[in-house]
Design brief:
The protein is mainly alpha-helical. It contains 15 helices and 2 strands. Strand 1 and strand 2 form a beta hairpin.
């Protein structure tokens, strides 16, 4: 794919994805807060709903929630579903655009498993589907009657999948797919459970009957799951920009710690909004988890290992026959880029190669040919501010090597 088209496509898809995710997360947080703030009123039978007053934008709002048929039901209602659908759809296309179309650069690491592009995409898509099937099966099992044990089993399953993704993908691709799998669970909850159950409830109420209370309980439970998964999913989606999070062989442990940290932070706000106190211990647990995750990430960085007094990491070895960049190109890239893009960066303030991109060998440089063309030839974005003094003649040599090939 042309690198300019690839870059603009990535930018536009990411823009849509971020905007729709903001809308979805905002509505999720709002309704959890709203449910926690409802108070009993005379017009609604005890245990069958409640109301609260809000002020915003210069006006006052009275919001009521009914768990049984109200006196009248309008023909038009606001459905909060497209925020979820558009977030997942845009995220899926972004995953295909960046990670499957550019599998050799972003998803496949020959040091982990040398996969073809179709094989990598098949494993990734299979992982997303498996994640939903297992999670949905657990939510329909007898385990659903025991919320804590259900949470423990789902937690263990997510961590296991993070570990398995690490066995086949690059670190970056593994954490991204773990987050995508969780996001699929969340959007699946909306599309296959919450919205269908709401439709069944409305149909029963319009028919003058009683809605099955299980529909509401199931929808509320799935909505609560989404609420507790939100912060970890956002962290994992951002992790691909921060190599320290995914470069450790124990990145799956970082996933576990972030799951706990994100969940207890949401627990703090959910309890606080419900007026049941402020469990400050949640922040202590979150801080411990994040500090622990940071320690694990340091242990994967040469500079961090030195600071922690750990033995140096082993040298990366390439299989014989691995494609290599020409010597002239390798000399230029290593001379101008490897002070940062190396297994052991030497540039002040750089502890791990930016985005995990290593350019300290002809084999590694060949794998990053398209990225080098985009950042060093087409845009001159690298080296940053040309701090290493890459010349026009050197860029010309790189351009001739990295250009389109028959």
């Amino acid at each position: 794919m042309d690198p300019i088209i690839a870059e603009w496509g990535s930018l536009l898809l990411r823009w849509v994805h971020v905007v729709t995710a903001i809308a979805w997360i905002g509505s999720s947080f709002y309704f959890m807060h709203l449910d926690a703030s409802l108070k009993a009123i005379p017009e609604i039978r005890p245990g069958k709903g409640g109301a609260c007053w809000e002020v915003h934008g210069g006006g006052f709002y009275e919001v009521r929630k009914y768990l049984e048929a109200p006196a009248h039901l309008p023909s038009e209602m606001i459905w909060h579903k497209w925020q979820s659908y558009s977030t997942w759809i845009s995220g899926f296309f972004l995953l295909v655009w960046i990670y499957y179309a550019g599998a050799s650069t972003h998803l496949v690491d020959p040091q982990v498993m040398d996969l073809s592009r179709p094989a990598a995409a098949a494993i990734g898509l299979g992982g997303l589907a498996l994640g939903w099937l297992v999670y949905d099966g657990l939510c329909r099992s007898p385990l659903v009657k025991h919320e804590v044990w259900l949470a423990v089993v789902v937690f263990a399953f997510i961590v296991l999948m993070a570990y398995l993704f690490q066995q086949v993908f690059s670190g970056r691709g593994a954490l991204l797919h773990t987050g995508a799998m969780m996001a699929t669970m969340m959007s699946g909850n909306v599309f296959l459970n919450i919205i269908p159950n709401q439709r069944k409830t409305i149909a029963a109420l319009l028919a003058g009957g009683e809605a099955n209370p299980d529909y509401g309980k199931q929808a509320k439970a799935r909505s609560t799951h989404n609420n507790y998964l939100t912060l970890p999913v956002v962290f994992l989606m951002l992790s691909n920009h921060y190599p320290l999070t995914y470069s450790s062989p124990f990145a799956f442990v970082i996933v576990a710690l972030i799951l706990v940290a994100g969940a207890v932070i949401r627990h703090f706000y959910n309890v606080s909004h419900a007026g049941k106190g402020q469990p400050w211990w949640c922040w202590a647990v979150a801080a411990i988890c994040i500090l622990w995750a940071a320690w694990i990430s340091m242990a994967a960085s040469p500079a961090g290992r030195e600071r922690l007094g750990l033995a140096p990491l082993g040298e990366v070895r390439h299989a014989s026959g691995t494609p290599r960049a020409p010597a002239a190109v390798a000399d230029i890239v290593i001379g101008r880029c490897s002070m940062c893009h190396a297994n052991q960066p030497v540039w002040d303030g750089i502890g791990v190669a930016p985005k995990g991109v290593v350019l300290d060998s002809p084999e590694a440089i060949e794998r990053q040919r398209e990225a080098i063309r985009l950042y060093a030839v087409l845009s001159h974005a690298m080296p940053p501010q040309n701090v290493t003094g890459m010349t026009a003649d050197e860029r010309r040599v790189v351009a001739e090597w990295s250009g389109p090939r028959p």
